[in-house]
Amino acid sequence: MTRPTPQQQTRITLRFVALASSLVLAGGVLAWLLLLVSPADARTVGTERIRLPVAFHFSTACLIGVSIALHAAWSSVRVERQLRFRHSLRMAAALAILFIGVQTFGLAQFVASLPRGPYYSSTGAESFVFVFAVLHALHVGVAALCLAWVIVSASANRYDHEYCWGVTICSFFWHVLGIVWLAILATFAISTSSAAT
């Protein structure tokens, strides 16, 4: 494999920045559109028992889809199926954009439904889930940048059966994000069910 020229490196870097910005922008626009079309009563649930927004269930499915698509991309590049590899990367990028948008929308709904007051600001499962969901969102941002880098590198034909380290790391990063998100949801479910009894 030959090393890219400085001009090629500049083009690759610009593509990376453009793709990463597009991923974040598309997710933000999707979240904004979802907030616009959601009814006002869905945005403010009130002070009754807190439930996870339905958007979290959908975003969980998207996150699992990203993980599956990246695993398919990794499996494909290892056996030199470049078309399937690129198709899987495009699918992962689309699902990642959908995940970011729906997750942002879900977080906005979740924050609107949190009870207000000094007692609730530091106690309860809601605070735990909110803090860890925001931390998870920051890691998703890094994972989206990683995915953007892999897509840009794949468009420059950098991956084959001998060199697919970037695809491997990106795939495992998204797998770990999925596991952590499921652990956050499980903790919330356990803590709210025990608080209800």
Query: What count of structural domains?
Result: 1
Which class in CATH terms?
Answer: Mainly Alpha
Summarize model confidence as the mean pLDDT: 78
Broad structural category: mainly alpha
How much strand?
A: under 5%
CATH evolutionary superfamily:
Cytochrome c oxidase, subunit III, four-helix bundle
What do these coordinates show?
Helix 1 packs across helix 4, helix 4 runs antiparallel to helix 5 and helix 5 packs antiparallel against helix 6. The chain has a single domain, classed as Four Helix Bundle (Hemerythrin (Met), subunit A). The chain is elongated. Helices cover 79% and strands 0% of the residues. By secondary structure, it is mostly helical. It is built from 6 helices and no strands. About 3% of the residues have low confidence.
Topology:
Blueprint: H1 6-37, H2 40-43, H3 54-78, H4 82-113, H5 125-155, H6 165-196
Helix pairs in contact: 1-4, 1-5, 3-4, 3-6, 4-5, 5-6
Quick summary of this structure?
The chain has 197 residues and is mostly helical. The chain has 6 helices and no strands.
Which tags fit this structure?
mainly alpha; 6 helices; 197 residues; Four Helix Bundle (Hemerythrin (Met), subunit A)
